[in-house]
Specification:
The chain is mostly helical. The protein has three domains: 7-199, no CATH class; 245-301 and 310-318, no CATH class; 321-434, no CATH class. It has 19 helices and three strands. Residues 297-309 have a biased composition (Low complexity).
Length: 435
C-alpha cells in the first residue's frame, strides 16, 4: 500500500498478505487479518464514493465488522499518510482504486486458499461490501457537493468497471469459500445478483455475474434454481436472442437530445451540463456500455418476421460471443439442476431458442460475430459446443415423453459427430448415446 501502486506488484503483495495467517495458525489470526483488510477497503470506499451513495453505507458495514461495544483492530498500514503526496485527482486513479482492488484480491485469496483450522467467515460484511460497490452506477445521490462532485463523478465512472470486476471476483470467492456457511446469506446474494443484472452492461462484468449464478446453482442445487429462475431466463433470453426488440434495440431512429449528447460527447464535456445529465438519469455504466458491443446498421436485413424494416437511423446492438457462451452455460446448468420445475411459462420459449441457436451455430455461425483465432479469446467453435451442450440438457430435462425438436437436434448431433478429431465431435457422440 505505497503511494504509487503497481498493479502486478500489488497483487503479489496481496497474495503474501493473504498467506500471513498461515504462519501463526489459529482462528483468531485469520479472522483478525480479514477484518483489518475489510475495514481498510471500507475506509477507502468512504472517500471514493462521496456523493454517489447514501452516507450511512460505510457506517453500516463498519458496524458489521466491529459490533457495538467492541474495540476496532489496529489499522492495516499507515492509512493516514497513504497517498498523501499525490494530487486528489491523480490519487484516485493511481492509488485509491488499485489499492482497493489489491485488498479485494487479498480477501479472495484468503477465502479460497486452504487453511488448516476452521474459521468463521464474516459473510454479512463481505456481501454488504460487495453490494455497496456493485450497485454504484455513477449516478449522483447527493447534491450537497456541487463544486466537486462533477469531477469526482467523472473519475469514478472511469474506474467503475475495474472496481465492479474486482468485487464480482470477491463475491465469487465469498460463495466458494463459505460453502455450508452460505445458506443464511443466500437471500441477500440472490437480491444482489438480481439487482446487478439490471445494471451489468459490459461483457466482462456480465460474464462474471453469469459465472456467479452458475456457482450458486451448482453449490446450492434445486432450491437456488427456484429463486434465480426468472432472472436467469429473462437475462439469458435477452442476451441470446438478437432479434429481441426490447433487449437489443439500442436507440430509436430519432433519439432525444439528452440521449444523443450522452453518446456523442465525452464525459469531460458533459460535466459542464451537470443539470442536464442528472435529469437524464443515465448512469456511468450505461454510457460506457455502448463501446464494447458490436453494432449493426440497417444495411443488414432483419431476420425476424413481423418487424418493421430498419431505417438508416436504426442502430442495433448484438451481444458478444463471450456473453452468449456464459448465458448458454448458465441455461445448461439451470436445466440440469431444475429443468423439470415450473416449466409451464418458460420451457417452451427456452427450448425453441436453444434449437434455433444450435441450428444457426451449425450453419457456420450465420448471424453471429466473426470468430477470432487469438489465444484465450472465444470463437464460434466454443459457441457451437456451448449451444449443443445446452440443447442436450434441454432434451434430457424435458417434461414431455418425447422432447420437442428431438428430430432436429438428433440431426445436428449427427452432423457434429462427423467433424472427427474435434471436441464437438466427441460431445456429439456422447449426446447421441445419451439420447
Amino acid at each position: 500500500m505505497s503511494t504509487e501502486v503497481n498493479v502486478k506488484l500489488s497483487k503479489k503483495f496481496a497474495r503474501v498478505l493473504a498467506m500471513l495467517p498461515s504462519v501463526r495458525v489459529s482462528e483468531g489470526t485469520w479472522s483478525l487479518m480479514i477484518q483489518k483488510v475489510l475495514i481498510g477497503i471500507n475506509n477507502l470506499l468512504n472517500d471514493a464514493f462521496v456523493g454517489l451513495e447514501e452516507e450511512k453505507k460505510g457506517r453500516e458495514i463498519m458496524m458489521l465488522l466491529v459490533p457495538p461495544g467492541n474495540d476496532p483492530p489496529p489499522v492495516l498500514g499507515d492509512q493516514v499518510k497513504l497517498g498523501g503526496n499525490l494530487h486528489v485527482t491523480k490519487k484516485f486513479g493511481v492509488f485509491t482504486v488499485p489499492t482497493i482492488s489489491a485488498l479485494a484480491h487479498c480477501c479472495c485469496m484468503m477465502l479460497t486458499s486452504y487453511y488448516p483450522v476452521q474459521v468463521t467467515v464474516p459473510g454479512r460484511a463481505l456481501i454488504a461490501l460487495s453490494r455497496r460497490v456493485l450497485l454504484v452506477d455513477g449516478s449522483l445521490r447527493n447534491k450537497l457537493f456541487p463544486s466537486t462532485t462533477s469531477l469526482h463523478q467523472e473519475l469514478i465512472c472511469f474506474e467503475l468497471p475495474s472496481l465492479h470486476s474486482s468485487f464480482l471476483d470477491l463475491l465469487h470467492a465469498t460463495i466458494k469459500g463459505m460453502r455450508s456457511q452460505l445458506l443464511p446469506h443466500a437471500a441477500n446474494i440472490v437480491r444482489l445478483v438480481t439487482d446487478y443484472f439490471k445494471i451489468a452492461k459490459l461483457p466482462t462484468t456480465r460474464t462474471k455475474v453469469y459465472s456467479i449464478v452458475q456457482l450458486l446453482l451448482t453449490s446450492m442445487g434445486v432450491g437456488m434454481s427456484l429463486h434465480l429462475l426468472e432472472v436467469i431466463v429473462s437475462n439469458a433470453v435477452g442476451d441470446l436472442d438478437d432479434n429481441c426488440v426490447k433487449e437489443m434495440t439500442l436507440f430509436s431512429t430519432n433519439p432525444s437530445k439528452g440521449t444523443s449528447e450522452s453518446l456523442s460527447k465525452s464525459y469531460s464535456k458533459k460535466r459542464k451540463q451537470e443539470p442536464q445529465i442528472q435529469n437524464s438519469h443515465a448512469s456511468g455504466l450505461e454510457k460506457a456500455a455502448i463501446s464494447p458491443k458490436k453494432m449493426k446498421t440497417s444495411s443488414m436485413p432483419t431476420s425476424s418476421k413481423g418487424m418493421t424494416p430498419e431505417t438508416p437511423g436504426d442502430v442495433r446492438m448484438f451481444t458478444p460471443l463471450c456473453v452468449k457462451i456464459a448465458a448458454l452455460e448458465t441455461l445448461e446448468i439451470l436445466l440440469n439442476v431444475g429443468g423439470s420445475l415450473r416449466t409451464d411459462h418458460w420451457r417452451a420459449k427456452v427450448d425453441l431458442l436453444l434449437i434455433n441457436i444450435a441450428t444457426s451455430a451449425c450453419d457456420s455461425g450465420a448471424g453471429y460475430e466473426p470468430s477470432t483465432t487469438k489465444v484465450g479469446e472465444t470463437s464460434i467453435s466454443h459457441f457451437r459446443l456451448a449451444s449443443y451442450k445446452a440443447l442436450l440438457a434441454s432434451f434430457l430435462s424435458s417434461p414431455h415423453a418425447r422432447p420437442l425438436y428431438l428430430a432436429q437436434g438428433t440431426e445436428l448431433f449427427r452432423k457434429g459427430k462427423l467433424e472427427i478429431g474435434t471436441t464437438l465431435a466427441e460431445f456429439c457422440s456422447h449426446a447421441l448415446l445419451a439420447l
